[in-house]
Amino acid sequence: MGSTERELVTLFRTKTVDPDSQPELARTLLESRTKVSSETGYMMKFGERSHRAFTVFDAYDLGGEGYPVSESALDSLPAYIRATLERDGVVQILTHYDTAESEFTDISLADEPTSEELIARMALLLGRGLSLHETVDYLVVKELDHYAAEQWASIRGVGVEAVRTNVREAQEQLALS
Question: Integer distance in angstroms from the first to the last C-alpha of the chain?
Fold first, then answer.
């Protein structure tokens, strides 16, 4: 990819397609699945950022080709995105896709704030008197909802009570402002 702009990619489990209600899509998926040597059970469809509110079926119906998701592409997804894909059967991400390496890079959920939006939100929270730790813990655990407090505490190398206290303090401070 020559562009620095990330693409919208809709990933979905092929089993989520009902052949009775979406016969053409089901047929296309079945044909595509036979072309891949390492079957993961997932397909991907590239789209425009403006399509991120579309359902998987609407995104697929926009034209263009759907592609099987290889093992290496699936493995390149962050754990929280893979977990969402496995749980919901579909996920939309903003990413760069390297076709030569068959992997995603610079990945975020399509509905996550951009880096600029996240920095602006951090500045706002810090400006309201939250400490840096309260701000980061609150954003990661509550607003971005990437990790449970226990997981985030483990990543940070602190006790879970420290994270919970920071989140609670942030919530109390925000309720007062």
Answer: 44
